[in-house]
Amino acid sequence: MPVRAQDQKLELIGRLAKRVRERIAPDRADEVERFVRQLYANVPPGDLLRNTVEDLYGAALGLWNFSQQRRPGEPKIRAFNPTPSEHGWRSTHTVIEIVNDDMPFLVDSVTAELNRQDLTVHLVIHPVMKLRRDGGGKRLELAKPVAEGDAEAEPAAQSESLMHIQISEQSAPGRLAAIQDGLARVLADVRVTVQDWRAMRERLGDVLSELETAPPPLAREEIEETKEFLRWIGDDHFTFLGYREYDFSGVGDAATLRIRADSGLGILRDDAYSVFDGLRNFDTLPPEVRQFVLEPRLLLITKSNQRATVHRPVHMDTVGVKRFDERGKVIGERLFVGLLTSAAYSRSPRQIPMLRRKVQNILGRAGFPPNSHDGKALTHILESYPRDELLQIGEEDLFEISLGILHLQERQRIALFVRRDPFERFVSCLIYVPRERFNTALRLRFQEILEAAYDGAVSAFATHMTDEVLGRLHVVVKTKPGAIPSVPTPEVEARLVEAGRSWSDDLQEALCASLGEERGIERMRRYADAFPLAYRERFPAGVAVYDIARIEECLERGRIAFNLYRPVEAAPEEVRLKIYNAGKQVALSDILPMLEHMGLKVISEVPYEVQPLGRTAIWVHDFLMLTAGSGEIDVSYVREAFEEALGRIWLGEMEDDAFNKLI
Q1: Given the DSSP bridges, would you call strands 315-324 and 94-101 parallel, antiparallel or unpaired?
Q2: Measured between alpha carbons, how far is 507 from 513 in angstroms, rounded to an integer?
Q3: Which residues are CB-contacts of 266 (< 8 A; sequence separation ≥ 6)?
């Protein structure tokens, strides 16, 4: 009976425990063995079984010794390359050890920072252990599990996070120090976020109380919906990372903005931390941006320029609640910075305050009966709209864009919808593209076009593919405030359409131009998927139209067909020949002597199998040839005689000899 991996793991840990008993002094062995067992308890068997007992022992003892001393309230970090001579064990990877107070977000924040530094993470071991330390941070013991209701139990030990991480080997000078510095910054952000979490929630409660007792002079509906949204994010739908207050003063060009000193919490404790690029230089921003900031809107939801270092490495969500004086003038703002939780992205927008109002207003303004085709389609568009966009977009933009998407319906064409960030930090682009045509290469071409159009750089993209005809690509282009080119959206869309044109699109257009729409579409049905990829990469669709005519001739006449030609880029002595044959390839041993007798030297031949729908397969052989005397041939002059003669020779109606050069 085969041994299970879990059983092998237990046997390996047993050998490790034995090694501890053999090498550790009896008065310490029990504690070290408990540490080793806790360290490896939840590691997948495959990650353990690929290591030797000696290396696992060395890694465990190294972390145990490293955790012996730690300053209270501070993380302890080291990155190193283990060697038997220095550390007593070895690894093919660089190892990171972290000892810290246990708190939320540690593992995902640490691994996100390692990924940000382009490091490949091979292994993460993260037990939480109860350790007792003295006032100076010296470890006294690894606490034993305490039985419930044990009145004689010693004072509770503190929960500590111990991490053993293996990453791709790093040996460049200064690299290990850079890794440690990056992790220290991230762990500091995690600490202040956790420490100030309760205070940030209290600030949210203060804002709600103020809206209840001293509401601003705004529409009651707006105030009530804002309060509902703030209660909603406070109900575990928002991970609070920072809080800050701003004061506004002055009007028009003299308007200024400043951070209220000592108002910051979490990652915004430091007043130097920039949430929005350019907002610090408020007086230099474009007038329309300053006007937007000072608009008498109670709630403003948008994105920070900064990616979160805590929890998830994405651009942070910001929720700003403006302060007003008694005349309704904006005099400040309370800003919450964090991350919306998964519920904000998975729940229907009609169940989320602010979004439900926005969606209902769009549906009401559109005026479609709820059970009509258009009514249901528009509802689906809004339900599946990118959630970050739905949170930030104004109703006017949402109305125009959602109706534009609705009008696409099942039309298989590329379409672009653009929203410019009011702060001019980015341009948000929704591209709808036929699903069957979408691939990574096309996405990259689209991104290059958008970067050039808006003079920026792509900061994020997301694809949304379902069983619908059209897929959606959402691209965010980071821009320079005050310097976004005013290129019309239809012009950018035209560039995308051109980049997204397929060979099949060109073929249909060329067939319709050549044969008329009715016959062209009929011919397209037969040849839409007939040509192999190698042919489509080599020849434009216009050439295929000519080849299709010869193929049809070959099929109708039931005999071989020829096409002598010279590409425009060919040298004077070069000439090409295509041979079309139904059912099977032409044997080179049959055709090469005929061509040589006609004064041509064959350099190469490429065959293509063309399979028209419902018809016999046709083999198209493309020959590259040179004239025997390196002289130029007037292809238009000799084509008809050459093709007729070659056909007669092939059918045995003419002799195949050197006199054929006279043709």
Answers
A1: unpaired
A2: 10
A3: 192, 193, 196, 197, 200, 240, 241, 242, 243, 337
Q: What mean pLDDT do residues 293-303 have?
A: 90
Tell me how long the chain is.
Answer: 663
Q: What are phi and psi of 577, to 5 degrees?
A: -135, 130
Taking CA 228 as the corner, what is the angle to CA 223 and CA 230, rounded to the nearest 5 degrees? 95
Nearest residue to 239 (alpha-carbon basis) of 328, 153, 337: 337
Q: Is 479 exposed, middle or buried (0-12, 13-18, 19+ CB in 10 A)?
A: buried
With a CB cutoff of 8 Å and minimum separation 6, the contacts of 602 are 592, 595, 596, 623, 624, 625
The residues that bridge with 199 in the sheet, in sequence order, are none
Question: Are 302 and 392 contacting, i.e. CB atoms less than 8 angstroms apart?
Answer: yes
3-state secondary structure of 570: coil
> Using CA atoms in the order 461, 467, 470, 472, what is the torsion angle rounded to 10 degrees?
-10
CA distance 260 to 482: 26
Q: What's the pTM value of the predicted model, to 2 decimals?
A: 0.80
DSSP string, 230-252: HHHHHTTTEEEEEEEEEEEE--G
Q: Which residue has the tokens 């403003």?
A: 300
375 Cβ contact list (under 8 Å, min separation 6): 363, 366, 368, 369
pLDDT digits (tens, 9 = 90+) for 578-617: 999 998 999 998 899 899 888 888 899 999 999 999 899 9
Percent of the chain at pLDDT > 70 equals 95
Where do the H-state alpha helices sit in 333-488? 342-346, 355-366, 373-383, 387-392, 395-408, 440-454
SS3 state at 157: coil
- Name 158's bridge partners: 131
For residue 564, the surrounding DSSP H or E stretch is strand 561-565
**pLDDT value, residue 459:** 92
Cα distances from 16 to residues 6, 60, 556, 620, 639, in angstroms, run: 15, 10, 81, 69, 85
The torsion angles phi and psi of 431, rounded to 5 degrees, stand at -115, 125
Q: DSSP readout, 478-511?
A: E--TT------HHHHHHHHHHHH--HHHHHHHHH
Alpha carbon distance 114, 615 (integer Å)? 58
For residues 299 and 320, the answer to whether their CB atoms sit within 8 Å is: yes
**pLDDT value, residue 281:** 66
Instruction: Provide the pLDDT for residue 547.
Output: 95
* Helix residue ranges, H only, 558-602: 588-597
Q: What is the DSSP string of 548-561?
A: HHHHHHHHHHTS-E
Q: Give the pLDDT confidence of 144-171 residue by residue, as tens digits.
A: 765 544 544 455 689 999 999 999 999 9
Q: Worst-scoring range by mean pLDDT, 307-311, 317-321, 556-560?
A: 556-560
DSSP assignments along 511-535, one per residue: HHHHH-HHHHHHHHHHHTTTS-HHH
Pair type for strands 561-565 and 470-478 = unpaired
Give pLDDT, residue 151.
45
Token representation of residue 640:
């008809």
